[in-house]
């Protein structure tokens, strides 16, 4: 028997002590606070080291579950938290002073942080509230500019939104020093079509707008402003081109250091550090051959972990089946294990930065920095990020349109989608209805009951007084955090707090970016044929074909709707697109007013079985049941069949990536509906 030692089992000694791994999270929350709490505790037991809370759209947009706007949206893409009692349930048996919690919340971030702080105080009643606050660590996303550009969960106008952000930052720097009060989010910019240059430029311009607002508010002394810069964190995206993504992250770190040093005079290198968490790209996940998403996710994770000098501080990965629907706990576990294998089995954390000295990497980083600075200069010349929202939105829609065109033309290969489409049957998706999790259909009913019971036991006079103080401070310019904490302690609801500020600040509708977007540059044979079909059908019907693109409900993911609207315009349709967050009644009213030939609905939040029938019923009541309705979104096959049975003319899901082909299908739907 050989006595030679097994060299494979005896790794070389690392060049320095092994680095600590990043915080490992899974983005989770669904149905009810109790169900989400059970999921969190299970994930923590599996080795997850931080929490990332997904709130439902009702909570994110400042409504209560009993609001008419909440129809079909309660608990579908996250957990509903309408009041302090539900926040208590969400974190039951999870010690918040020991936890690092990320909350994906924006317009109502101040309210969620206030309830989180109050729950932490209740968990530690032997301590003074100020001492509890000093122990809390985590992040509130709180980036409204990217909501205007891509995600859509904004509520208030720009000036008021920036004021809320500045108030939160000033409060946390003074009272919750370990809290990151804002995550500047380039993640959603990439999902909306941003190139690496645009992602760098628009995120950094947003950070400048926020920091300038805090500085100009006078709430933080010049001596403490360095702490403000040090608490700014970023939330980025990593696509499958992992070399380019690695260079993008190195460019981010160098540009941020430059901005902190030169614009804000930050001397301490620790305060200039680019601190970021990451959720890797979901835009590139495919419904076709979804098992391929696993290797995509791994490559994307490498883009934010390989380079030590630009390594993420926290990572959360999507699940392989997110293009199909809501991941199950097992799917989330798989994504967590991907992180753990990389961190604990590989030697990644044992070496200094492996890219230092690479002329290839250095050249690409320099190129990205140069192009990002040029784009930042353009945005700053327009008045900064707030003044350039219209410009940035149009640029993102145009960039996304160019990407879609490249995929359709086969210039950009997506394995299993536009190349290598032949596949063996997948055991993972043998039963598609079991391959995803369905949100509890009783969640809306339970949430409404919770609000009713909560209001029945509180002191209404105390709530009214607290909300009056919120309104008073909103009008006076006083920092709103203390009044918000008082409202949370008194028992106000999410909808009441946001409603009070709606009355003071008003609401806002962001630009769609469609009118200024550049679509397909050259038609090609397929689009030319569709244009001819559109023209011929229009002649036969005696007028230009009119397509209404509508987004019912609270879903703010508008990328798909925008791309359909741009391609329909390129195909010769007259397009009516009024943006996001419309009620079924508003969509029906627009269809009647514009006398449209077809209604296209885009829903990605899972509320299609509630909202689509409402639009169908509304059209029938208006005498327009002969107008065909098509639907696009993340829709399970079984739901798609039910929608067709209810009268929907066609259902499109992410596997239907050919927009021009979809346009041809819309023409045929219109022809059939009119007996042509």
Automatic annotation (TrEMBL):
<keyword id="KW-0846">Cobalamin</keyword>
<dbReference type="InterPro" id="IPR036724">
    <property type="entry name" value="Cobalamin-bd_sf"/>
</dbReference>
<dbReference type="Pfam" id="PF01642">
    <property type="entry name" value="MM_CoA_mutase"/>
</dbReference>
<dbReference type="GO" id="GO:0046872">
    <property type="term" value="F:metal ion binding"/>
</dbReference>
<dbReference type="InterPro" id="IPR006098">
    <property type="entry name" value="MMCoA_mutase_a_cat"/>
</dbReference>
<comment type="similarity">
    <text>Belongs to the methylmalonyl-CoA mutase family.</text>
</comment>
<comment type="subunit">
    <text>Heterodimer of an alpha and a beta chain.</text>
</comment>
<keyword id="KW-0413">Isomerase</keyword>
<protein>
    <submittedName>
        <fullName>Protein meaA</fullName>
    </submittedName>
</protein>
<keyword id="KW-0479">Metal-binding</keyword>
<keyword id="KW-0170">Cobalt</keyword>
<feature type="region of interest" description="Disordered">
    <location>
        <begin position="1"/>
        <end position="20"/>
    </location>
</feature>
<dbReference type="GO" id="GO:0031419">
    <property type="term" value="F:cobalamin binding"/>
</dbReference>
<dbReference type="Pfam" id="PF02310">
    <property type="entry name" value="B12-binding"/>
</dbReference>
<dbReference type="InterPro" id="IPR006099">
    <property type="entry name" value="MeMalonylCoA_mutase_a/b_cat"/>
</dbReference>
<dbReference type="InterPro" id="IPR006158">
    <property type="entry name" value="Cobalamin-bd"/>
</dbReference>
<feature type="domain" description="B12-binding">
    <location>
        <begin position="544"/>
        <end position="673"/>
    </location>
</feature>
<dbReference type="InterPro" id="IPR016176">
    <property type="entry name" value="Cbl-dep_enz_cat"/>
</dbReference>
<dbReference type="InterPro" id="IPR006159">
    <property type="entry name" value="Acid_CoA_mut_C"/>
</dbReference>
<dbReference type="GO" id="GO:0004494">
    <property type="term" value="F:methylmalonyl-CoA mutase activity"/>
</dbReference>
